[in-house]
Task: inverse folding
């Protein structure tokens, strides 16, 4: 599978990344159907399949339940095979999201992620925005904190998982990588992707399949595999996209996505 470098660094990520929210959390999520958390054996099969198909990017977060802890356990001895992206600023506790973007909280979040993932560095750390992207950058100074942690060697590149176009553009200006929502029915962040491409910054795409709500695609007469194919091709046709993060715990669904991406090479 083809790879792209993030922000003029030596961090090469596969065009398709694996999102891991379903590894550790099935409460308070916006997927159309309920699901049980997978067993360690199921996750090992999924991770081994992903690696065999050329996927090297894993996207996780403290807010994804015990996703980080599970990855830390499952990736022992395999850390160098993966580019790990996690987040800071949000935690999911007792069924509710809690946000804290203070310098102390962000540093503690990164340090706890290092412990949970059994690693001494994080490839990518993104601010897990609560929707107030610009305020977090301008008033909370979140990138100042992450820049210091980067200088300390705890993270390699940083940015934000954004909720607004304005916040995405500010992230492109001040950080290494931005994560945006982008799919055929949510195109606002195309301006962010274009700006990042122009400035040589990394772009990770979330919600390419609208969090599984594929019924939206039936407007154009498509469903199932055809809808997935259309969405993946739409996103990856953008020159500025480094990697599309697909959240799944289904090996067959991942295989179908890989086939689409490989066919575009």
Result:
């Amino acid at each position: 599978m083809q790879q792209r470098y993030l922000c003029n660094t030596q961090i090469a990520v596969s065009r398709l990344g694996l999102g891991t929210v379903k590894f550790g959390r099935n409460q308070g999520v916006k997927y159309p159907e309920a699901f049980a958390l997978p067993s360690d054996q199921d996750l090992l099969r999924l991770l081994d399949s992903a690696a065999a198909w050329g996927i090297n990017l894993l996207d996780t977060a403290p807010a994804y339940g015990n996703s980080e802890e599970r990855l830390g356990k499952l990736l022992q001895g395999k850390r160098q095979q993966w580019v790990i992206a996690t987040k800071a600023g949000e935690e999911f506790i007792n069924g509710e999201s809690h946000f804290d973007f203070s310098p102390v909280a962000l540093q503690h979040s990164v340090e706890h992620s290092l412990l949970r993932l059994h690693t001494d560095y994080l490839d990518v750390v993104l601010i897990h925005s609560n929707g107030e992207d610009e305020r977090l950058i301008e008033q909370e100074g979140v990138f100042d904190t992450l820049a210091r942690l980067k200088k300390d060697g705890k993270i390699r590149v940083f940015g934000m998982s954004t909720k607004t176009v304005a916040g995405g553009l500010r992230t492109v200006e001040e950080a290494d990588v931005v994560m945006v929502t982008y799919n055929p029915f949510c195109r606002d962040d195309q301006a962010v992707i274009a700006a990042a491409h122009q400035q040589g910054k990394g772009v990770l795409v979330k919600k390419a399949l609208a969090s599984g709500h594929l019924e939206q695609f039936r407007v154009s007469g498509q469903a199932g595999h055809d809808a997935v194919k259309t969405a993946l091709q739409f996103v990856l046709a953008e020159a500025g996209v480094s990697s599309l993060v697909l959240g799944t715990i289904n090996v067959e669904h991942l295989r179908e996505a890989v086939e689409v991406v490989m066919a575009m090479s």
User: Anything to note?
Assistant: The radius of gyration is 17 Å. The longest helix spans residues 103-116. The chain is about 40% helix and 20% strand. Residues 20 and 60 are 5 Å apart (CA to CA).
